[in-house]
Write a structure and sequence with these properties.
316 residues, alpha+beta, 10 helices, 4-stranded antiparallel sheet, 74% helix
């Protein structure tokens, strides 16, 4: 009998706790939709604070995915000695192509190189008047896609040690600059995101503080009839949660529209570089993260506003 009574008391306590949360959640939501204009404005503040850094984050995420493809598409130009004939150049091509760290080679004859140079510069007539072709045979070497930067450097050093090779040209400074720019971009987006989220928290704290102060009489009545601190704080916590989660939903919508608006020109741009479908949309991770971040921001702002308000009451 005692066990049954204890379980009944626990069940009744749990039911009462759920009922209080349900009432607080529904009443807070009704108060928000009763003032749609001000509620939408607060949602927009939170959405802008979250959508701008998240859109930059999505852009950097896509650029980071493209960098390895750009690195794999790179090659090294192995310039052979001017006295190396065509048969020796073919032997060098076959020898280098057998290396495990090489994905492919392309042997360019000096005549082909001269023709391509003339077409690109418009100096074909001038180059034809030369008595001797000044360009050497060249082997274009494509490193294996899984090679690290250190391994690629070692491959270039190994190529330069071949007796038939005069020079190895490896232009990777642009790739290193791009990687450093991406690293700076990640840090800048992180700093911007933290600053904008803090701004949203401060704006929500001020809004919630005013909302709490506007219901000061209700708080005093609830305190007089024995309402606990949790009971008094609960509706405002739900208000902050709704403010933040609603802003997160709007931020996810803005990010989705931004990715659609930007996808066509980006796909056309990278299509010129033979890179199909480079842009990755927000998917499900970004919207879920924005809603969760918005809800956390609103909840945190409500806690700060409540603590600030009740500390002010204690000092009166």
């Amino acid at each position: 009998m005692t066990v049954a009574r204890a379980s009944s008391e626990k069940w009744n306590t749990a039911m009462a706790w759920r009922a209080q949360h349900r009432v607080a959640a529904s009443s807070s939501w009704r108060k928000l939709i009763a003032r749609p204009f001000s509620t939408v404005l607060i949602w927009l503040v939170v959405a802008i604070s979250l959508s701008l850094p998240s859109s930059l984050l999505l852009t950097l995420d896509n650029l980071s995915r493209i960098v390895p493809d750009l690195a794999q598409g790179g090659h090294m130009s192995v310039m052979l000695m001017s006295e190396v004939d065509w048969e020796t150049a073919q032997h060098v091509e076959q020898h280098v192509n057998a290396w495990p760290e090489v994905a492919g080679v392309d042997l360019i004859s000096r005549d082909r190189a001269l023709t391509e140079f003339g077409e690109q510069t418009g100096l074909s007539d001038v180059l034809r008047s030369l008595k001797k072709n000044p360009l050497p045979h060249t082997v274009q070497v494509v490193p294996a896609p899984d090679l690290s930067e250190v391994s690629v450097t070692a491959l270039a050093e190994r190529l330069s040690q071949l007796p038939e090779v005069e020079q190895v040209i490896r232009d990777t400074r642009w790739l290193a600059r791009l990687q450093e720019a991406l690293l700076a971009g990640w840090r800048w987006v992180t700093a911007l995101g933290v600053a904008m989220v803090l701004g949203a928290v401060l704006a929500l704290v001020n809004t919630l503080y005013l909302a709490i102060d506007a219901r000061r009489e209700e708080i005093e009545v609830a305190s007089l009839i024995g309402g606990s601190a949790a009971f008094i704080r609960r509706p405002f916590l739900y208000t902050g949660l709704y403010f933040g989660a609603g802003g997160g939903v709007l931020a996810a919508l803005c990010l989705w529209l931004f990715s659609i608006w930007l996808s066509q020109p980006l796909e056309a741009l990278f299509g010129l570089y033979d890179m199909a479908s480079p842009l990755r949309g927000p998917g499900l991770l970004y919207p879920a993260g924005l809603v969760a971040a918005g809800a956390s921001v609103g909840w945190l702002a409500a806690i700060v506003a409540l603590r600030r308000y009740f500390q002010g009451l204690e000092t009166l």
